[in-house]
Design a protein that fits this description.
Chain A is α/β, with parallel strands linked by helices. The first copy, chain A, folds into two domains: about 290 residues, Amidase signature (AS) domain (Amidase signature (AS) enzymes, Alpha-Beta Complex), CATH 3.90.1300.10; about 240 residues, Alpha-Beta Complex (Amidase signature (AS) enzymes). The first copy, chain A, is built from 20 helices and 13 strands. In chain A, helix 7 links the parallel strand 2 and strand 3. Chains A, B: GO terms for molecular function: amidase activity. Chains A, B: It is an enzyme of class 3 (hydrolase).
Chain lengths: ~550, ~550
Amino acid sequence: MAESWQQRAEAKHNAILAAIPEQWRITNPPIEEQVDVTGSYVHQYLSEREIEITETTANEIVKMTTTGKWKAEEVTRAFCHRAALAHQLLSCLLEVFFDAAVADAKFQDEYFAEHKKPLGPLHGLPISLKDQFHVKDVETTMGYVGWIGTFEGKSGTGKEKVFESEMVRELRNLGAVLYCKTAVPHTLMTGETNNHITGYTLNPKNRRLTAGGSSGGEGALIGLKGSPVGFGTDIGGSIRIPAAFNGLYGIRPSVGRLPYEGMANSMDGQNSILSVVGPLATSVASLRLVIKALLSQQPWLYDPLVHEIPWRTSQEDEISGLISKGGRLCFGVLGSDGQVNPLPPVRRAVDEVVQALEAQGHEVIPWDPPPHKTLLDESVKALAYDGGVDVRAALGLSGEPPVEQVAFYANLDKEFTASEIAATNVKIRQLKKEYMDYWNNTAKVSKTGRPVDAVIMPLAPFPAARPGRYGYYGYSTVVNVLDYTSVVLPVTNVNRKIDDADEGYSPLNEVDKGVFESYDPEIFEGAHVSVQLVGRRLQEEKLLAIAEYVGGLIGK
Amino acid sequence: MAESWQQRAEAKHNAILAAIPEQWRITNPPIEEQVDVTGSYVHQYLSEREIEITETTANEIVKMTTTGKWKAEEVTRAFCHRAALAHQLLSCLLEVFFDAAVADAKFQDEYFAEHKKPLGPLHGLPISLKDQFHVKDVETTMGYVGWIGTFEGKSGTGKEKVFESEMVRELRNLGAVLYCKTAVPHTLMTGETNNHITGYTLNPKNRRLTAGGSSGGEGALIGLKGSPVGFGTDIGGSIRIPAAFNGLYGIRPSVGRLPYEGMANSMDGQNSILSVVGPLATSVASLRLVIKALLSQQPWLYDPLVHEIPWRTSQEDEISGLISKGGRLCFGVLGSDGQVNPLPPVRRAVDEVVQALEAQGHEVIPWDPPPHKTLLDESVKALAYDGGVDVRAALGLSGEPPVEQVAFYANLDKEFTASEIAATNVKIRQLKKEYMDYWNNTAKVSKTGRPVDAVIMPLAPFPAARPGRYGYYGYSTVVNVLDYTSVVLPVTNVNRKIDDADEGYSPLNEVDKGVFESYDPEIFEGAHVSVQLVGRRLQEEKLLAIAEYVGGLIGK
């Protein structure tokens, strides 16, 4: 008798656990017994040396590994151990290949010993990858039971466990050590991470809450410092949501900056709003490190959608030069998009950033752009073009039902026509142009005489979502529709003593009501609170420079 | 009684002629009486000074106008006169606004007199525009009778005769003088220029042949030197075809290099293969001049689809540096795409370029890429997505039938679904990747150790098409599917004494047969013969540098 999808999911679930060495196995306490598993809780299972290594940022790690001060093997083993703990506490991994990683690390150590130089700028740096990257010797399931044992749902392609995504090739060239792939919600179309293989991925800082999604496995893993830097993808917030919910820095680059070539995806070929790939990490310097390294590989020669734009130090220098000479930056601030108001801790985070900047003499002006709702209406269309055909086909391979968070996409029933798609494309272009003109026109009101340098806005209306209650994507998705650069900036943590729920709040609409009602300071206590810094299209260097500066001001 | 479409077309036709000053009116001789109207034929109507001015390339003109040596007004009047002659002989203009141009030129002369400096790098340079650009005070019909008196077919938009396309704004900033808009085939979807307003646009060098399309008015006008440089658009060859058929240089830049914002278009919102805008001119230096000038306007701040890639002098310097040090370039050569063989004069042009390069010690290797047919199959789909909805709507406004050249698009009847479009997008991306890999791999066989620098290939199988016989677009369209940079290089002219028809040729297929049978050395005598130099995506500076060098070698 053929296995049921439940049996296949369970077998894969168990295989992931089985890949964790016996000596690293721990007991997972009930959530309410141990809400926060970061810091001292996870430290109990680690040696001093492992803690030292895993609590070093990626940019600092490579200073040690590329100079031979730290061995790649030791670094790799430390992160493998901490990742194993993270998975057992949070359900964040879909593929575990520690043995291959240790073998790669040993090879690197030998290379360094022989040549007295590193393999590349990422020599000995463990990097985690969302389970859309193809890596040899392991599967890519993207959380679909029906993809187990296949290449993107297809059998006999010759690519199974052999083919590698372009970025994987580049990361290996650069000396990175790959050791695990992280959990996603099947379909990728939600801000929570849930699938029938790993189950629900928890937030390490507050396990009552989601780790975010769709790069939620990355968020949880890096949030617990089981990885120094990892790559996710973002079509409506999927890099930035897990970054924000886990107190991390994360960047959504514009389309065509980093290579997506050869990665698995949902609704591939929907070309109105493209998913992008980008890193999450505990420091801006770590994000810069990996982006700069990847661009040194000239990805435009290997991915037809990448533009030939090398790393532009001049963009960074402009910002740092300005600041070091006492010059002023000008920021826009969007407190609310008028659709769903942010909850009290998010409001506080926005205010804290504004105050920190104003205290340094920078200018912050209200951001009152063309209505975000109009932009979001188009994004809803773009993501529903295929009427659920792709998602149902993937789920149908095993017969598994959609998890509740993505039922919307599985239940769509009408495909858009070519004319409807063309009309959406035209509308999106027009709205981009209007937004661009608004941005340009801020030069007329700013004291700098320049258009605003970046916009401070919430990334989500909540610090994180409670399971099953991620009800509004407007703040993150507007960036995808505009194809802007956005960097998530961790700001603070929920403090039940000051982040009271709003008394007598009268909701704007049903969605706003749902978000309002999901807030409970007791439940959210301690959760990370972040904002995003939004820049224009293809302004990655500039936005990273600004995020690093602002992060420094607020002590992050 | 409402006017018929014929009456409306005729009224517009007459209004264009009426805009030509009385003293510039001439009699148009029958085609067979005067096949070639270039050179001495057109000179009879021009003064020595007018000939001097209009036979100066754009890059040389601005040396005079930006230094005050030549007055903008005199230059403008000379080109207006020659453009008026061109239109009467070739039917190449859809909008004539000489008075506005002279007024602008006078203003520029006053500006120069007062400030002792030019308005910008294009000060006093007349530039012609394909009738997709919106220019204040005149219409944009794109050859559709139903668009007369409207804004893109719509009334009461408030944009009629007021709105200007983004590139028009930039050209004015730069000091260009706009004076006419040029004929297109309605729908833009053919390599011949024909519509019910202007009628059929003739080739000035050989009026038995087409001037090309869809930027055919540009080709004819610049071919007769009624404009020093003009802008067309290209989705399947529409810049390069008129450039090639008129002995001009023309560049198809990659998508996102130059601003298309605010231009009229066909099937707008079809996002799989995008139309691009680019210049045609009598010298490479003229193309460089206008592109470099436009990029100095930072179009990426005003057009959401333009990438922030400033003019890269380093790309040019690499080529010129290499050549000046006696270094070698490596070219691929594609004699035939295996679908339709080029006619004898085109074969000869390819051979002459190869020989000229080899004589200088450059390397030319066979180009044997993944089959072009597979790429072209996808382009056929992309251009048929909407099942003719857009084209029928535009024709339906007036009730005019399609001209025979575009009947295919008007007669499509099935819209693609979202899933079918997505599958096409995925396939195109995969084919781009395969082609890219092929290109990269030429580094393994070239003597330079680098991938080939450019590929020499036909732009069309014929030197020009005979009316109604443009049967094959594969050579030009493959570049659009790949989004590559391509520069048309004029090489030679048909010589009936050496370009015999192939005796006993056995055609590859029906299309090949049609092309073969359309050739008659007597009819084609004197026609321009060109090739294209194809480079990778976004390599405009490099390809212009190469085209200038190769053009120099063959004496063009």
